[in-house]
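Feature request, filed as a ticket because there's no other form

It would be nice if the structure record came with a short human-readable summary line next to the tokens. Right now we just get the raw output. Example of a typical job, pasted below so the devs can see what we mean:
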Amino acid sequence: MDTPTVMIGISAAVLLSYWFNHLGRVWRFPSVVFLLLAGLLLRAATDAAGLSVQPPGALLSVLGTLGLILIVLEGALDLDLVAGRRGFLQRTFGAAALGVLGGTAALAALMKLLFAMPWPSAVLLAIPFGVISSAAAIPAAETLPRQAREFVIYESSWSDIVGVMIFNAATVALAAGGGGFTLNLFGGAAAVLLIGGLLGLGMIWLVGNLEGHVKFLPLIFGLVLVYAAAEVMNLSPLLIVLVLGLMLNNPHLLRRIRGLARLQSAHYEAELHRLKHLTAEATFLVRTFFFLLLGYSTDLATLADLRAWGFALLIVALVFGLRWPLLWLFNARRPRPLLWAAPRGLITVVLFYSLPAGMLPAALPHGALILVVLLSCVVMALGLRSDAAAGAEGTAGTDHEPPPPGPPATPA
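Raw output as currently delivered:
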């Protein structure tokens, strides 16, 4: 394929994705579904034309990891930690953690029943399907009221982090014969919190003091470097990203600590705004090509397998069926419209492709993964549209009072 054709294709993909974003806001439908469908249609067109265009095998995994980093960073850079948010933070973390643990347990039982797998392997296979995808949930939450949107951002980000931590710990424990899960889980969490805190202090200084026209891309790729190094050490690097983003957007938390207040320069806020803008643009670009490539890399014949549809429908029904009592518990008995904000997507694909070689059961339908992503996103979109049409207002977080006026402070 010649250079002009590649350039035309890349440009068309970006412009199409921008239009999909607009269409998604108007129709209250996640743009990732449009991107997936566009990828599937492109695959059908190239197959019909007899063309064989195979992207590098590792490209999807690399784009997925970059997208995960940028999406969590973008979400964290929009979150303000102020006094009075302690209960809200506890509810969002509790909903995410219990959702991952409960969903993984139920899905693992289903895997064991369907594929006669050993429990450790069934649990590891279930984890990717038990995690909410912030890549799909956060953009879809743009149409929700502010407090509901914050609930989705926090819960989906926590879900990604908890899911990756459990997945990494379970992978190491399985490789070691089943031991060391607790040590890997909590020891790894303590390590990444320390790393994230130190990185956050350095980034706060760098954002306000680096000079020159090019400074934010090196910062972002420095974060990617730390993420990859932490992943090699089987830690949970998404927690580093979340801690870094929260510290960057809440430098007032350092003012009570002598010596640290001087890290923030006089023009820090203006530079932070530029970093947020660049992060949003980069997230859009990476998400565009990840979901297009995911759709294109799917063998269309696998989507015609009735077993794949049956498995995907079971997974999606279990996911949303378990979510109602979970939100009833953590959201003051007002589950809607957050009932629908539980899509599977980028994190599901990244973790699924990270499963140990040879672990997937032969009976698992090949098209199940993409169908779970598509169906869960469609259910989310239809549910949100139905609630909006019925005049249902987002109630997540509305059962607690807004933060009281006054200087912001670190939550207890």
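Something like this underneath would help us a lot:
The chain is about 70% helix and 0% strand.
The CA atoms of residues 208 and 269 lie 8 Å apart.
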